[in-house]
């Protein structure tokens, strides 16, 4: 079969999904180690049966709702490519809002950043890449997630400025004052209805109690002991959680200083500072 025939077959097989053409193209590129430009330039070229069978195998995994990022082992985020596996949350465009918010607030400053629940490291690694004078600490309860974050940091060239620790939120962090604390914590309620694809991701990175607010309560209770007097906290939130998260942090002497919204107009990133 040719590239174009294989792509058409993949699109038909994945037609029950939301983005069959994109998914099929990414999987074909991955199976054949070809760029998008190569697929166009050589669309009528016959491909080796080995690559053909690899593509069929990948299509079956996607047909059964395994996320594309887990199949290919990577996911683009901001302007970088991150290794991912079933041990970490897949980076999403909603999280880019948090990174963009921080970068708009800070240029090339010498900062100390703490990333709570770092996962693949996509948040803090992207910030360190764009803020070359900045150093950071990323913590996660999963040592497998930290292994992936370490490889991502080294590949992207910020490993010398990023310390990674296995920690349940603040539990293993030496008391110190950070300029910025960032987090995309679990924020889905245990009884919420989510797609089968999302349920493939690590549950500890998704769910936070019945109402999805447990993580924010734990962070708010300790954050002021790790934040400089003029420091800021940037938190990703669920699209309906703005008021609840604001109340939690205000109860711990924080004030809401800013909001960043997604394309649908929902509050996706909240910025807090200590009341003075």
UniProtKB/TrEMBL annotation:
Annotated ranges, domain Release factor glutamine methyltransferase N-terminal? 5-73
What is catalysed by this protein? L-glutaminyl-[peptide chain release factor] + S-adenosyl-L-methionine = N(5)-methyl-L-glutaminyl-[peptide chain release factor] + S-adenosyl-L-homocysteine + H(+)
Q: Tell me the residue numbers annotated for binding S-adenosyl-L-methionine.
A: 117-121, 140, 169, 184
Which InterPro entries does the UniProt entry name for this protein? Answer: DNA_methylase_N6_adenine_CS, HemK-like, N5-glutamine_MTase, PrmC_N, RF_methyltr_PrmC, SAM-dependent_MTases_sf, Small_mtfrase_dom
Question: Mind listing the UniProt keywords for this protein, alphabetically?
Answer: Methyltransferase, S-adenosyl-L-methionine, Transferase
- Any one Pfam family here would be PrmC_N
Which Gene3D superfamilies does the UniProt record give? DNA helicase RuvA subunit, C-terminal domain, Vaccinia Virus protein VP39
Chain ranges of the Methyltransferase small domain: 95-187
Name the residues that bind substrate: 184-187
Q: Which GO terms describe its biological process?
A: methylation
| Keyword presence, S-adenosyl-L-methionine | yes
Could you give a GO molecular-function term held by this entry?
nucleic acid binding
Which EC numbers characterise this protein's activity in its record? Answer: 2.1.1.297
Similarity comment: Belongs to the protein N5-glutamine methyltransferase family. PrmC subfamily.
The record's listing under NCBIfam families reads:
hemK_fam (TIGR00536), RF_mod_PrmC (TIGR03534)
What does the UniProt record say this protein does? Methylates the class 1 translation termination release factors RF1/PrfA and RF2/PrfB on the glutamine residue of the universally conserved GGQ motif.
Name-wise, this protein is Release factor glutamine methyltransferase
Q: Which organism is it from?
A: Candidatus Phycorickettsia trachydisci
What taxonomic lineage is listed for the species of origin?
A: Bacteria, Pseudomonadati, Pseudomonadota, Alphaproteobacteria, Rickettsiales
Q: Name the encoding gene, please.
A: prmC
């Amino acid at each position: 079969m040719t590239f174009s025939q294989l792509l058409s077959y993949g699109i038909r097989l994945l037609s029950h999904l939301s983005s069959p053409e994109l998914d099929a193209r990414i999987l074909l590129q991955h199976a054949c180690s070809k760029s998008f430009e190569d697929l166009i330039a050589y669309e009528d070229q016959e491909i080796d049966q080995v690559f053909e069978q690899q593509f069929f195998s990948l299509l079956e995994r996607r047909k059964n709702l395994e996320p594309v990022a887990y199949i290919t082992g990577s996911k683009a985020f901001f302007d970088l490519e991150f290794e991912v596996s079933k041990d970490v949350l897949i980076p999403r465009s909603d999280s880019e809002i948090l990174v963009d918010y921080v970068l708009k607030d800070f240029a090339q400053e010498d900062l100390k950043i703490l990333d709570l629940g770092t996962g693949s490291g996509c948040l803090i690694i992207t910030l360190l890449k764009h803020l070359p004078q900045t150093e950071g600490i990323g913590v996660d309860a999963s040592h497998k997630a930290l292994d992936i974050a370490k490889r991502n940091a080294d590949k992207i060239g910020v490993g010398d400025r990023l310390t990674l620790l296995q920690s349940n939120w603040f539990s293993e962090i030496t008391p110190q004052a950070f300029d910025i604390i960032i987090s995309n914590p679990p924020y889905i309620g245990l009884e919420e209805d989510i797609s089968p694809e999302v349920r493939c991701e690590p549950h500890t990175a998704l769910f936070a109690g019945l109402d999805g607010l447990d993580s924010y309560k734990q962070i708010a209770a300790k954050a002021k002991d790790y934040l400089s007097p003029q420091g800021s906290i940037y938190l990703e939130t669920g699209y309906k959680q703005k008021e609840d998260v604001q109340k939690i942090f205000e109860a711990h002497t924080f004030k809401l200083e800013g909001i960043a919204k997604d394309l649908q107009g929902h509050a996706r990133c909240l910025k807090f500072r200590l009341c003075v």
